[in-house]
Design brief:
By secondary structure, the protein is an alpha+beta fold. The protein is about 35% helix and about 25% strand. It has helices at about 15-50, 55-60, 65-85, 90-95, 115-125, 190-195, 200-220, 265-270, 275, 285-290, 340-345, and strands at about 110, 135-140, 145-150, 170-180, 180-185, 185-190, 235-240, 245-250, 255, 260, 280-285, 305, 315, 320-325, 335-340, 345-350, 355-360, 365-380, 385-390. Helix 3 crosses helix 4 and helix 5 runs parallel beside helix 7 (about 200-220).
């Protein structure tokens, strides 16, 4: 039994040694209570940590690892559907709430797995198309509306005594861009699909991307707007001296089907408003570019300069050049060169999803893959684009 600590009775005074003993005893008792509380809290914390479920652990993993685990079931199920038409796994994912693979019976087919869709989108964005320099937006509706204020609201100076005059009201135009269905129909033999070494996703992505890229590029330049985007060259094109909204202004080259002089390109540059020139790009096809490369200024220097680094576009009068093969050739009256800020001047609206329907019946012994996406395009700012017309006036 430990010796009891002496305590002072009423009217008594303890010695200094006894008082010190009492203080140490109280401190040790308080410290034991404190450590007991700490151990209890640590045990509770350990219990909570041990009860973390798999979903919490998954959320804490790096983003790339989490994305890979999320996409893997869909990718395997989608590959099975492409090879054999087995859609049970895709439907199972849908029932489990994994919406990446939702089946849409009205439209037909299934959503392409995210990796394949990203590969297609990357190819489309890197092709020599107006898409590379236009404003691209993703929408979930059947059309996309652009609101443009193309008039000055008005302003005026005022002092303390003069009445302030009413200023002009801005004019807002609504440009509606409908989305149209773009489709591709690659085919492969069933024997090839049965070969496990055959990269079905990569093959499908390449075929779809090539078809979509060619169709889109042509429509963004020359599309008539009927079941396809409205190309910017299908707008009303007028002499820039008489330009008005809802039309694109042209600058003559100074000679029929030829350049009158290199000065025509300078006239084209400065026909565009200063607010657009900072982000402007020349657009022409390869044959026109070959002619432009030969042009020199009055001091004998070429107007064209190649990019200084790999991947950098060539420049003409200091502005980048997009070589787009869907632009017309140089000919009498042809609008063969465009110059403008296409990020402001042309808008491409599209749905981000891509669907594929497998058809093993229509082209036996081959299997058809009917791929569809929805995309639209139109001029959104008529002041942001100018063209050169190859004529004397």
């Amino acid at each position: 039994m430990p010796e009891k600590t002496p305590r002072a009775r009423a009217g008594e005074t303890l010695s200094p040694a006894a008082e010190l003993t009492n203080a140490m005893s109280d401190f040790i008792s308080d410290f034991k209570t404190f450590t007991t509380d700490i151990h209890s809290k640590l045990e509770k914390q350990d219990n909570r940590m041990n009860k973390l479920d798999r979903k919490t652990v998954l959320a804490a993993r790096p983003a790339l690892q989490t994305a890979a685990e999320t996409h893997a079931p869909h990718q395997k199920a989608f590959a099975a559907y492409l090879r054999s038409g087995d859609d049970d796994a895709l439907r199972g994912l849908e029932l489990e709430g994994k919406a990446l693979s939702t089946a849409v019976a009205a439209d037909g087919g299934y959503l392409v797995d995210p990796q394949t869709a990203e590969a297609i989108q990357s190819t489309l964005s890197s092709t020599a198309s107006i898409r590379a320099i236009a404003n691209v937006v993703n929408v979930d509706a059947t059309s996309y509306d652009v609101l443009i204020d193309h008039t000055e609201m008005g302003a005026g100076w005022a002092d303390e005594t003069t009445a302030t005059a009413e200023t002009d009201t801005p004019q807002i135009d609504r440009i509606s861009i409908p989305l149209h269905e773009l489709s591709a129909l690659p085919k492969a033999s069933q024997r090839l699909l049965d070969d496990s070494a055959f990269d079905i996703e990569g093959w499908l992505a390449e075929r779809i991307a090539n078809k979509f890229a060619r169709s889109e590029a042509a429509a963004f330049v020359n599309g008539d707007g009927t079941d396809k985007p409205l190309g910017f060259l299908q707008s009303t094109i007028v002499d820039n001296a008489a330009w008005a909204w809802d039309s694109i202004g042209y600058v003559p080259s100074g000679a029929d089907a030829d350049f009158g002089s290199a000065d025509a390109l300078i006239d084209l540059v400065y026909a565009l408003g200063a607010e657009y020139r900072a982000n402007a790009t020349f657009v022409m096809n390869s044959r026109t570019a070959g002619r432009v490369r030969k042009l020199k200024d009055n001091d004998g220097r070429f107007l064209w300069s190649d990019g200084l680094a790999a991947g950098e576009p060539a420049r003409l009068l200091g502005y980048p050049v997009l070589v787009c093969e869907d632009m017309p050739d140089v000919a009498l009256g042809a609008d063969a060169i465009a110059f403008g800020d296409f990020g402001a001047g042309y808008t491409i609206a599209e749905r981000p999803d891509l669907r594929v329907l497998r058809d093993p019946f229509s082209a036996k012994p081959h299997v058809l893959f009917y791929a569809t996406k929805r995309v639209g395009g139109a001029v959104s700012d008529f002041a942001a684009i100018k063209v050169m017309r190859f004529s004397a006036t």
